[in-house]
Design a protein that fits this description.
Uracil-DNA Glycosylase, subunit E, 165 residues, single chain, 4-stranded parallel sheet, alpha/beta, 7 strands
């Protein structure tokens, strides 16, 4: 059983919650989300907001908060072989109330079908909210180009809305 090692990123100004499934080996080693250099998450989300791709953990956190985006994962603990979503077993979900009780989240988005499946199974009845499934930014989703991903993910910018702080 592996416990999720990364704290959620959010503040009271967060309007969008993006959930992945569970951190990859590389992300667990780095102690931050989407740490594998081939995962396109940071390229996609920065393109959506018209910003340079953040490089350091400090830059990534600042970017998310400035963009009103909260970030975490559906799964709080599980058995997993390496980083393979297909190997996930014995799932316990994160308590999304940690974010939802303190931020004005207008929409929950999930990064890929695995996160969507686990959200629906373990979180939807608890939160009372449906999530929007966006195409995975994982390199395993090679059928989606960076441009297609960015276009599909562009909906988060309007939802985040509001003035930048």
């Amino acid at each position: 059983m592996i416990l999720h090692p990364i704290q959620p990123i959010f503040d009271e100004h967060s309007r969008v919650l993006i959930l992945g499934s569970f951190p990859s080996v590389r992300s667990r080693e780095e102690g931050f989300f989407y740490g594998h250099p081939q995962n396109r998450f940071w390229k996609v989300i920065s393109a959506v907001f018209g910003e340079m791709t953040p490089r350091t953990v400090t830059e990534k956190k600042a970017f998310l908060l400035r963009s009103h985006v909260a970030l975490w994962d559906v799964i709080g603990s599980c058995d997993i072989c390496g980083s393979a979503d297909s190997s996930i077993r014995n799932v316990s979900a994160n308590d999304l109330g940690i974010i939802l009780d303190h931020a004005d989240i207008r929409q929950i988005y999930v990064n890929g079908r695995t996160a969507f499946r686990y959200y629906r199974k373990h979180c939807e009845s608890e939160t009372g909210r449906q999530a929007v499934c966006l195409p995975s930014t994982s390199p395993a989703n090679a059928a989606w180009s960076l441009e297609r991903l960015t276009a599909a993910w562009s909906c988060i910018k309007q939802t985040a809305g509001g003035e930048y702080i």
